[in-house]
Amino acid sequence: MKKIITIIFLLTIIPFYLFADNVSKGDCNTSLDDYDGQATITFLGDSLGDFVDDPTWGWVGWDAYLYFHRSDIPWRVQNLAVAGWKTNNVFDYLKECTGIKKRDNFKTANHVAFEIGGNDFITWYPILTYMPWKFSSYTDPLTNEWVVGSTEYILHNTKAIIRFLRHPMIDKDVLVMGNFPALSHSPSLGDMGDYFDMDKKRLDDFYLKFQEVKGSLRMSREDNANLLNEFLQAFNALEEIQELLVKQFNLRRDFINHTLEEIANWSFHTDIDLSRSKPTPSELKQDYLKWLAMVKANPTTILSLGLFFTQPGLEQTAIDEREYTRSRDKTYNDPKGNMPSETVPTDPSRKGGDYVFFLPLYPLLVRQTDCLNWGQCWVGEPVFFRDFLPGHVNHLGYTVWASQIAKKATDLNWQNQQLRNDGKVHHFNFEDQPDIEVEIEPYQAPPPPSNIDWLILLCFIFGQCHF
User: Fold this and answer.
1) Residue 217 domain flag
2) What is the DSSP string of 8-63?
3) CA distances (Å), 8 to each of 1, 58, 154, in order?
4) Residues 6 or more apart from 267 whose CB is under 8 A from it?
5) Residue 467 lies in a domain
6) Is residue 113 within 8 Å of residue 405, measured between CB atoms?
7) Alpha carbon of 389 to those of 281, 292, 305: distances in Å?
8) Cα–Cα distance for residue pair 425/428, rounded to 1 Å
9) Were 66 and a residue from 75, 112, 226, 379 both cysteine, which residue would form a disulfide, CB within 3.0 to 4.6 Å?
10) How many domains are there within the chain?
11) Does pLDDT of 266 surpass 90?
12) What is the CB-side half-sphere exposure of residue 396 using CA atoms within 13 A?
């Protein structure tokens, strides 16, 4: 029976990732009517955001999770996340919906938050399995050309999304949410199959109990939050969450400024120096075979490592875009030359401010023992996860995540800001409305391996390296 359940789950979930370009493109006919015209936040992202109100994962939705932490705020979250989306899907969706034909029906909150990138690493999975050096970017010594690795790929696309949302015609406040780790090989627990039974996790007592007490799937934000509170109390989970939060915050403080920065020094924009060390051919081959064996037993280790490498650059990207869009030129030229450039009408209070922010999340779900005792700070803490395909969080994970969103949003006073421009794209007085200028085009697919990649691969496979 367990095998049947697992097979059904695999057949349901895996197509989202193998054929991610064919997933739903999202609906451009968005409305804020259900939020009294005053949505607090618009969410964009992949299945992590999409599954927050789906059975087995989050159940109650973002409004309830945020209300659980701050019941004094009438949270109104417009959730546009779509399972299977990658960074380029988010960008393409925004570009399509803000185009001339569809922009009148596309309404979002002033504040847009997004978490994205996990599915990009799944797309990179075959390459990174056999060519793990491609987490990094480097100069090809054969052609002297820059080779884009997975980390730079995702950071480039993230920058494209931020830049587009901050275009003067859109002018959204942007919250770039960091990613989470995934379940990985653990030095303290072993391989994923040794410590995480996905069938049991998907059908455990927590969710069976939740199904008993939940009742209707269509409940108010307050009722859902009260239900979440009742549910967590029934299993004495509130104390567990509070203790975990204290420990995880301490973990973040201890290692976020050290481990991530150190690993970023080689993982992002670093040339590969093939003469730096001289391992023997047999040592290279053995290390490579160990890597392949580990990945075979723990496939989502690649995802977790990739997201780990990405976090420092993700935060820096948000900082850089904040500075760039703060002082950008707020004019738009008529593409047909019928009239001089028109300055985008901007509220004086919107000029020169901070409108791009970063929310670090990765350390909060890291397994402390593996990070502090073994230095492996990319292993997810199993208590927060519902599955390992590719690593969706459960109700505890969403509770921790929502605590950070609630704090960040209230620190920025987002809950008290009135909707600008009816949530739509700004209109010019041009006879023909222009499309929004795309300053940064995102990558649509991982670049194929270069010649040097194939030579390095042969070197590892045959153990015959002569540098």
Assistant:
1) yes
2) HHHHHHHHHHHTGGGS----S----GGGTT--SEEEEESHHHHGGGSTTTTSS-HH
3) 11, 20, 31
4) 135, 136, 151, 309
5) no
6) yes
7) 35, 19, 15
8) 10
9) 75
10) 1
11) no
12) 24
8: amino acid identity, one letter: I
Instruction: Tell me the residue range of the domain where 324 lies.
Output: 2-462
For residue 291, with 0-12 CB atoms within 10 Å meaning exposed, 13-18 middle and 19 or more buried, which class applies? middle
**What pLDDT is recorded for position 2?**
42
Burial class (CB in 10 A: 0-12, 13-18, 19+), 236: exposed
Q: How far apart are CA 464 and CA 467, in angstroms?
A: 10
Question: Shortest CA distance to 166 belongs to which of 334, 410, 408, 329?
Answer: 329
Note whether residue 389 is domain-resident: yes
Residues whose CB falls within 8 Å of the CB of residue 40, separated by 6 or more in sequence, listed in order: 73, 75, 76, 77, 109, 111, 409, 414, 415
Per-residue pLDDT reduced to its tens digit, 197-247: 765 554 454 444 444 444 444 455 566 666 666 655 544 455 555 555 555
Q: How far is CA 128 from the centre of its chain?
A: 19
What CATH code is carried by the domain that includes residue 87?
A: 3.40.50.1110
pTM metric for this prediction: 0.80
124: which residues sit within 8 A by CB, 6+ positions away? 134, 150, 153, 302, 306, 446
Distance CA 141, CA 380 (A): 36
Amino acid at 118: G
